[in-house]
Design the sequence.
C-alpha cells in the first residue's frame, strides 16, 4: 500500500511539473518562430494541389485558413505593420478551398487594396480575388459591389467601377442602389456624397467586425474632409470680405452664421491656426482623413473600440 | 510460519450504469495455509475463487483487509520472487516460442543469467513439453498452453505456488501428470494453493480444503475430517428385479439393471435392509460400504446455504 | 529495476517485430519507389521536392498509424488476453511495466523510421543523382518526426491504461489531428473572452502541439532550421511524453485488473 502511494505521488507530481514545463517551452518556441506556420503558404505554389491533398475536407481547411488570415491581418494591423505579404496567399488558398466563402472576398476587397498601413497595397490582387469570387458566385451582387468599390476607391478607375456596378445591378435580387451607383460614377464620382454612400453600403453589407470598423473610420474621415473643406472655403470668403484671417474659429463660425462652434465627429471643436489653416484637434483619431491634418503629419492607424 | 495468511480480505464491486450498486465478490475472508501443504480452494463457478487469487496477486485491490505471504505483506514486490502463479486459461504472447517466453519470465523473476537456459530447459521437460523448439505459442494446443502456464509458474523455483484451475484443458493423462507434479512440489517442500471446481482432484491431492460459495467461506478442514462428517452409506446388490416396499420405506435409492437391483442406503439402516431382503427371500449378492465423497459434503454445504438463504428471505 | 525495464522493452520490441509490423516497410518502399520512378520519368523540375514531401509525409503518416495501433495493443490487449497477469505476479512494479512498454514501442518506431529514412534517401538519389549539403536537413525533419512519434506513443499508452483498444485508438488519433492544428486553437483562444478564453487556452496547452515539428515544406525548399528550434522541440517532446507517461503510470497504479 505504501508503495502504491509513493508511486502515485511521484507520478502525480511528474504530471504537474512536466505539463508546466511543456507549456513554458511551447510559449518560448512560439516566440522563436512567429508565423512560421503561416509562411508555409508562401511555399504552396498551387492552391489546387492543397485542395486535392485535403482529401475532401476542404471546407474545414478553408475555415482554418480563413481564421488564420483574419488573425494574421488583425495582429499585424494592431502592430501598425507596413507589409502584409501573406494576406493574399492566405485569402487565395481560402477561396480556392471554399469558393463560396463570400466573407473572404469581401475581406480582400477591404484590406488587400488600400495602401499600408491600412491594407496590403495590392489592388491588382484584390481585383483578381474579386473576379474569382464573381466567377464562382455569379449571383451574389455584393461581390460586384466590392469589385466596383476597389476600382473606385483605390484605383480611381471610375469607368471600370461603373462597369462593375452595372454588371451587379443585372443580377436577380440585386440591391437597387447598384444601378444608382453606376449612374453616379459617370458624373459625380469624386464627390463626398458618393463616397459616403459607398462606405455606408460597405458597412451595411458586411457582418465582419474588421470590415465594418474600417468603414466607420472612413465615414468619420469623410465627415472631417467635408467639414474642413467647407470651413476652409469659409476662411477664404472671410479673407476676401475683410482682408484678413479670422481671429478664431468662433469668429469664423459667426461670420458664416453657423449654429455654434463647428465640431469634429468626436465632438471636439476644429481649430484655426495662425496661418489660416483649419485643423482637427487630435489628428490621430482620424487616420483616413486627408484634410485638416497638420503639415508633415503621418497617420498612425488605430481603431476606436466602439462601432 | 504459515505460508499464507488471509486477514479479512474483502472485495465489493460497484456495478450498474452509474456504478452505484454494490456487488460483493468476496466477503471478508479469513484463512490460513500452512507451510508445505497442498491446499484446495473449492467452489462452483463465480464463487470468488479467482477473485481471491487476484487479490493475493495484487491484480485487484481489496475493499478492506490484508494478507501475508511467506510472512511478508502481500503488496511487497520482493515477495513475488518466491511466488508462482498460474492464471485461469492462460494466454501468452502469440509470437514468442515457449523457450523465449520462459526466458523472458525468468529474466523478470530475477533468475541469474547463467542459470536461465538450464532452468528453462529442465522446466519444459518437467511439464512434458518436448520438441517445441522454434514453435510459436500461437500454434500451441490448449493443453500445451496449460503446460506452458504451469512451467512459468514453477520456473524460478518459488516456495509458494498458486494454481487457478490447473487441470483445465488437459486430457486424463495430462491431469495425471499435473497431479504427480503437484505431489512432487509438495515433496520439495513447497506450498501449493490451487482452486478448482473438480472435486475428485482435490480429494486425491489436498491436505486441506476450503469451500467457498457466493463469496463466503462455507467450510474448511482436512479432507478426511470433512468427508467423515457426512453420513456414510452402503451399497447393496441383490438378484432379481423386485424392490421390496420396506426398502423403499427405508429411503433407499434403487436402480434396476438387467437382473440385479442396486440400492444405496444409510449405514444405520443396514441391518433393517438385510432383514427386508431376507423376508422377501431375495438373494444378496454384495454389500459394500460407499466411500463418501467430498462431493457429498460439498453439495450438502451448498444446499444448506441455499436453504438458509431461502429461510432468510 | 533497470534490468526489468530493459527486458520488458526488448520483449515488446520482439513481439512487435514478430507481429510483422515491419512489413509496413514494404508498402512504404513500394509507394516511394513508385513515386520516385514516376516523377523521374515525367521530369517536371520538382522531382526532388516531390520525393522529399511525399517521402517525409509517408514516414510521418505510416509511423503515426503504427504508433497508435501498436501502442494501443500494448496495454489493452495484454489486459484482455491476460498476458499481464503472469507478468505482474512477478517482482515487476506496475510502473516498470509501463515504462518498459514505452521504450519497446519507441525503439520499434525508431528502427522503422531508420529503414524508411534509407528509403527516402535512396529515392532522392535516384531522382537527383547526387546529394547536396542541404539534404542533411532531411535528417532534421526525420528527427522531428521521431519526436512526434514519442509523443503519440506516450499518449497511446496513457489511453490504453484505462480505456478499451478501440476508444484508445480513437482518442489518440483525435489528439494527433487536434495537435496538428493546436497553433490555430491558441489563436482562437486569443480571440475569445472570459471563461471560454481560459478554457480554450488551457486545452490548447494541454493537447500536444505539433506545429513546430512540421518543417517538411520549409526544408523541401532548403530553408535552414535554427538550432534553438531543435533544442526547444527536443525539450518539449521530452516533457510532454514524460507527462503522458506519468499519467499512464498514475492511472495504471490504481487500476483493478478484472
Sequence:
Amino acid at each position: 500500500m505504501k508503495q502504491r502511494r509513493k508511486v502515485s505521488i511521484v507520478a502525480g507530481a511528474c504530471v504537474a511539473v512536466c505539463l508546466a514545463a511543456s507549456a513554458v517551452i511551447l510559449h518560448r518556441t512560439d516566440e522563436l518562430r512567429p508565423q512560421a506556420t503561416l509562411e508555409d503558404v508562401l511555399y504552396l505554389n498551387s492552391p489546387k494541389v492543397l485542395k486535392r491533398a485535403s482529401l475532401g475536407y476542404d471546407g474545414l481547411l478553408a475555415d482554418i485558413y480563413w481564421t488564420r488570415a483574419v488573425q494574421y491581418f488583425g495582429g499585424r494591423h494592431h502592430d501598425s505593420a507596413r507589409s502584409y505579404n501573406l494576406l493574399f496567399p492566405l485569402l487565395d488558398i481560402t477561396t480556392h478551398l471554399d469558393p463560396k466563402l463570400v466573407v473572404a472576398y469581401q475581406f480582400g476587397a477591404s484590406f488587400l487594396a488600400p495602401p499600408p498601413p491600412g491594407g496590403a497595397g495590392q489592388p491588382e490582387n484584390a481585383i483578381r480575388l474579386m473576379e474569382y469570387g464573381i466567377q464562382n458566385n455569379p449571383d451574389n451582387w455584393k461581390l460586384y459591389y466590392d469589385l466596383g468599390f476597389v476600382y473606385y476607391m483605390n484605383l480611381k478607375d471610375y469607368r471600370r467601377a461603373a462597369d462593375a456596378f452595372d454588371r451587379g445591378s443585372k443580377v436577380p435580387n440585386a440591391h437597387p442602389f447598384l444601378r444608382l451607383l453606376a449612374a453616379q460614377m459617370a458624373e459625380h464620382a469624386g464627390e463626398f456624397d458618393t463616397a459616403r454612400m459607398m462606405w455606408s453600403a460597405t458597412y451595411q453589407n458586411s457582418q465582419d467586425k474588421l470590415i465594418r470598423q474600417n468603414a466607420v473610420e472612413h465615414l468619420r474621415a469623410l465627415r472631417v474632409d467635408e467639414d474642413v473643406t467647407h470651413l476652409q472655403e469659409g476662411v477664404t470668403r472671410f479673407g476676401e470680405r475683410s482682408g484678413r484671417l479670422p481671429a478664431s474659429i468662433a469668429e469664423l463660425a459667426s461670420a458664416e452664421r453657423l449654429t455654434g462652434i463647428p465640431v469634429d465627429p468626436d465632438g471636439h471643436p476644429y481649430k484655426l491656426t495662425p496661418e489660416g489653416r483649419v485643423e482637427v484637434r487630435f489628428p490621430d483619431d482620424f487616420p483616413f482623413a486627408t484634410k485638416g491634418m497638420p503639415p508633415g503629419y503621418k497617420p498612425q492607424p488605430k481603431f476606436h473600440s466602439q462601432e | 510460519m504459515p505460508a499464507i495468511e488471509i486477514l479479512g480480505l474483502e472485495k465489493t464491486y460497484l456495478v450498474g450504469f452509474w456504478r452505484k450498486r454494490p456487488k460483493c465478490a468476496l466477503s471478508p475472508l479469513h484463512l490460513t495455509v500452512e507451510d508445505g501443504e497442498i491446499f484446495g480452494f473449492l467452489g462452483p463457478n463465480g464463487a470468488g475463487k479467482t477473485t481471491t487469487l487476484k487479490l493475493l496477486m495484487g491484480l485487484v485491490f481489496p475493499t478492506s483487509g490484508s494478507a501475508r505471504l511467506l510472512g511478508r505483506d502481500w503488496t511487497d514486490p520482493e515477495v513475488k520472487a518466491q511466488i508462482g502463479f498460474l492464471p485461469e486459461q492462460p494466454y501468452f504472447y502469440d509470437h514468442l516460442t515457449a523457450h523465449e517466453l520462459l526466458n523472458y519470465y525468468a529474466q523478470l523473476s530475477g533468475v541469474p543469467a547463467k542459470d536461465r537456459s538450464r532452468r528453462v530447459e529442465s522446466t519444459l521437460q518437467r511439464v512434458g513439453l518436448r520438441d517445441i523448439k522454434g514453435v510459436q505459442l500461437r500454434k500451441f494446443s490448449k493443453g500445451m498452453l496449460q503446460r506452458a502456464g504451469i512451467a512459468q509458474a514453477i520456473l524460478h523455483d518459488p516456495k509458494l505456488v498458486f494454481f487457478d484451475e490447473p487441470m483445465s484443458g488437459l486430457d486424463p493423462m495430462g491431469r495425471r501428470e499435473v497431479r504427480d507434479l503437484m505431489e512432487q512440489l509438495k515433496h520439495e517442500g513447497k506450498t501449493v494453493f490451487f482452486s478448482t471446481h473438480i472435486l475428485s482432484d482435490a480429494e486425491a491431492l489436498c491436505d486441506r480444503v476450503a469451500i467457498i460459495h457466493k463469496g463466503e467461506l462455507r467450510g474448511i478442514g482436512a479432507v478426511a475430517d470433512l468427508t467423515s462428517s457426512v453420513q456414510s452409506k452402503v451399497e447393496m446388490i441383490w438378484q432379481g428385479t423386485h424392490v421390496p416396499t420396506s426398502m423403499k420405506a427405508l429411503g433407499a435409492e434403487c436402480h434396476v439393471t438387467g437382473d440385479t437391483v442396486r440400492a444405496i442406503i444409510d449405514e444405520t439402516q443396514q441391518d433393517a435392509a438385510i432383514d427386508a431382503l431376507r423376508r422377501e427371500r431375495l438373494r444378496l449378492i454384495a454389500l459394500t460400504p460407499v466411500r463418501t465423497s467430498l462431493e457429498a459434503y460439498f453439495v450438502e454445504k451448498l444446499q444448506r446455504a441455499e436453504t438458509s438463504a431461502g429461510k432468510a428471505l | 529495476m533497470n534490468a526489468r525495464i530493459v527486458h520488458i522493452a526488448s520483449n515488446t520490441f520482439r513481439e512487435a517485430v514478430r507481429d510483422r509490423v515491419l512489413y509496413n516497410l514494404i508498402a512504404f518502399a513500394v509507394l516511394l519507389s513508385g513515386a520516385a520512378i514516376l516523377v523521374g520519368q515525367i521530369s517536371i523540375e520538382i522531382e526532388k521536392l516531390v520525393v522529399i514531401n511525399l517521402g517525409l509525409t509517408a514516414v510521418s503518416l505510416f509511423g503515426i498509424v503504427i504508433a497508435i495501433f501498436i501502442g494501443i495493443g500494448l496495454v489493452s490487449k495484454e489486459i484482455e488476453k491476460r498476458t499481464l497477469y503472469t507478468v505482474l505476479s512477478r517482482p515487476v512494479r506496475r510502473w516498470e511495466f509501463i515504462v518498459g512498454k514505452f521504450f519497446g514501442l519507441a525503439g520499434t518506431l525508431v528502427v522503422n523510421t531508420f529503414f524508411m529514412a534509407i528509403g527516402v534517401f535512396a529515392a532522392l538519389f535516384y531522382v537527383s543523382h547526387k546529394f547536396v549539403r542541404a539534404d542533411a536537413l532531411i535528417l532534421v525533419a526525420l528527427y522531428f518526426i521521431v519526436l512526434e512519434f514519442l509523443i503519440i506513443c506516450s499518449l497511446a499508452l496513457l489511453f490504453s491504461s484505462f480505456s478499451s483498444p478501440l476508444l484508445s485508438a480513437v482518442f489518440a488519433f483525435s489528439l494527433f489531428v487536434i495537435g496538428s492544428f493546436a497553433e490555430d486553437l491558441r489563436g482562437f483562444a486569443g480571440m475569445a473572452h472570459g471563461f471560454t478564453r481560459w478554457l480554450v487556452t488551457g486545452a490548447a496547452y494541454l493537447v500536444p502541439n505539433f506545429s513546430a515539428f512540421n518543417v517538411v515544406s520549409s526544408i523541401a525548399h532548403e530553408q535552414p532550421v535554427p538550432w534553438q528550434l531543435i533544442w526547444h522541440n527536443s525539450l518539449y517532446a521530452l516533457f510532454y511524453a514524460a507527462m503522458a507517461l506519468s499519467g499512464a503510470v498514475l492511472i495504471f497504479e490504481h487500476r483493478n485488473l478484472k
